[in-house]
Design brief:
The complex is a heterodimer of chains A (282) and B (311). Chain A has 282 residues and is an all-alpha fold. Chain A is 75% helix and 0% strand. In chain A, 49% of the residues are buried. Chain B contains 16 helices and no strands. The chains are: A mainly alpha (282), B mainly alpha (311).
Chain lengths: 282, 311
């Protein structure tokens, strides 16, 4: 770099500087709904209809009220059981299938694979009615398995795509060595294949967790008693009750939104790592 | 786990050698995923197709009656128009916004990179039912902040966006764009990071800078991501439900009706299984048809294959 170049750099900020300004302005706009949500939840009742983004003074009374009046922990428990159950089923069934198709290369698995992939093109709206009727006939309305199994069935194909791509990229000789050493297929699955695709498994687990936790349509149809509702159904339930008191309603919204936001901030490192290690490719 | 330790642990297993059930019947590995597909995806699809040829009560056979009814139903055409609008706006806007944000973050930030990546992705992580209520409040007349802040840039909103038949669908589309741009961004971030750095360096040496670099090098190299976002966008559009159900419920007077809300109303509120099934079969046909078309013609993938095609 010559002295002249350096002089220009000193007088004129580089594009990197403007890029950060653009990003910050865009981000400020992007965060308005999230900031507004928190802002309304912190307002005293007489200020909740104030049409501005920030209102002072702030109060935590709304949180005290809604936590005192409503058993919200129940909905979190339901969502947690259903979400973890779904993630577990998706990981187990998805990795088993990927292993059979990619490592064992069983006959006709490619055909089954392509058939399973059509799931990803099926809008939930189109199968929600038969699913509801089926679950009703099994007596699975208002039960955990009534949501876990359909969620898993819809999530498994994507998991297979990701995990299979990872296994396809793993060195074949590892598996051959394990085979020569006399591993059974199950040992090779749990001790060779699964450790190799760990970033893919973590990526799938995080994504499936987010999608399942926030799913609305099936939850609306399957869970209709107060005991089994998941957290996504809660805002709708309270929006009528707290119509005249948005502060309290928004306190509930914050309580519902924050755990997943914090969880994502906590695991985003692994999510991005999975993404960049090539989890997202066919 | 690295290669050596994987072999190591595999060797330890010799000691535990034992033929298990799955070794004798290896198709057991395929069974759980396949069974769940057959029972919870394939069967419902067949049910919907079968039921679409029946009357409201699910008994009388009416042939293509329900389909003829759909094609002469003005609400059905409204739904199609709204879905076309939805896809034609959300998909390109989310791509361009998400792609630009991704490029600015990946090329021009270093220490703040994680911060920006996380913040723009937060709406994707926020529950859609929370988002819907927050936005409904923001759009509200008299006390909503949307009309309040539009005043500052000289726009006097005289109507409530969600209550106006011609505006409602666009107000909902804006919410969708806000929620899902972060997803496009994260996909493009993966794509940008999969571009081999030698390609960048070569382009820089050849004198490609700024806008030239973006248009000639980055955009073409990211086309696998763009194609899979198009595919996911079309499916996502036909999937749309909670935003509309919670914010307008397809109203006012069916103005913002979409497949999700209309099928839900026919099937669960009115209880007309025949018509609901015909609508379901139509949206299914549309989703599968458009997907297969994109895969065949554009070579679109459900997940982008950036690294291989770039090499």
């Amino acid at each position: 770099m010559t002295a002249q170049d350096r002089g220009i750099a000193l007088r004129r900020p580089s594009f990197g500087f403007y890029a950060k300004i653009i990003l910050l302005v865009l981000l400020a706009l992007w965060m308005i709904p999230e900031i507004y949500m928190v802002s309304v939840s912190l307002r005293p009742p007489d200020k909740s209809f104030d049409p501005s983004l920030f209102v002072l003074p702030i109060t935590f009374d709304n949180f005290a009220t809604v936590l005192h009046d409503n058993p919200l922990y129940k909905f979190f428990w339901n969502s947690l059981v259903i979400t973890l159950g779904t993630v577990l089923v998706v990981l187990v069934a998805g990795s088993m299938f990927a292993y059979a198709a990619s490592v064992l290369r069983l006959r006709r698995t490619t055909l089954i694979y392509v058939t399973l992939l059509t799931t990803l093109m099926v809008p939930v709206a189109s199968i929600v009615l038969p699913l509801a009727i089926m679950l009703k006939s099994f007596g699975w309305i208002n039960s955990y398995q009534g949501l876990i199994l359909p969620y898993a069935a819809l999530g498994i194909p994507y998991a297979i795509v990701i995990i299979k791509a990872f296994m396809d990229d793993s060195p074949r000789d590892l598996f051959e060595a394990a085979m020569i050493d006399g591993c059974t297929t199950l040992q090779m699955f749990s001790h060779v294949a699964l450790p190799l695709v760990k970033p893919a498994l973590i990526f799938v687990a995080i994504w499936q967790f987010i999608v399942t936790w926030n799913e609305f349509f099936l939850a609306l149809v399957v869970m209709n008693d107060g005991e089994h509702k998941t957290v996504t159904l809660v805002p709708m339930q309270y929006s009528g009750m707290y119509m005249a008191n948005p502060g309290a309603l928004f306190a509930i919204l914050v309580i519902i939104a924050l755990p997943l936001i914090f969880l994502y901030i906590f695991v985003q490192r692994y999510f991005i790592a999975g993404l960049l290690s090539g989890a997202v490719k066919g | 786990m690295n290669k050596a330790s994987a072999v190591e642990s595999a060797k330890k297993l010799q000691l535990l050698r034992r033929k298990s059930l799955v070794d004798r019947f290896p198709y057991l590995y395929v069974l759980p995923a396949t069974l769940m597909f057959v029972g919870l995806v394939a069967y419902p699809i067949l049910w919907v197709v079968g039921e679409s040829f029946r009357g409201a009560n699910g008994k009388d056979f009416v042939g293509f009656g329900q389909y003829i009814r759909a094609f002469s139903d003005p609400v059905f055409w409204r739904v199609l128009r709204n879905m076309l609008c939805w896809g034609a706006i959300t998909i390109p806007v989310q791509m361009i916004l998400g792609g630009s944000i991704a490029y600015l973050i990946e090329r021009h930030t270093s220490r703040s990179r994680t911060f920006f990546r996380v913040m723009f992705f937060l709406p994707v992580v926020t529950s859609v039912s929370v988002i819907s209520i927050v936005w409904a409040q923001m759009y509200a007349p008299y006390y909503g902040i949307v009309q309040e802040y539009l005043k500052y840039i000289g726009v006097q909103l005289t109507i409530a966006p969600l209550g106006e038949p011609n505006i409602a669908i666009f107000a909902l589309i804006l919410v969708n764009i806000w929620q899902w741009t972060g997803f496009s961004m994260i996909m493009y971030i993966a794509g940008i990071n999969n571009i081999p750095s030698e390609l960048f360096d070569a382009a820089l040496i050849d004198g490609a800078h700024g806008w030239n670099l973006v248009v000639r090098i980055v955009v073409p190299l990211l086309s696998p991501v763009t194609r899979s976002l198009l595919l996911l966008g079309v499916i996502g559009t036909l999937q749309t439900f909670p935003i509309v159900h919670l914010m307008t419920d397809g109203g006012p007077d069916h103005a913002s009706e979409i497949f999700g809300t209309y099928i839900f109303k026919q099937g669960f509120v009115i209880g007309d299984t025949g018509y609901s099934s015909a609508l379901s079969a139509l949206v299914l046909l549309l989703a599968l048809g458009l997907s297969v078309l994109q895969i065949a013609v554009l070579g679109a993938r459900l997940t982008p294959q950036t690294r291989k095609s770039a090499a």
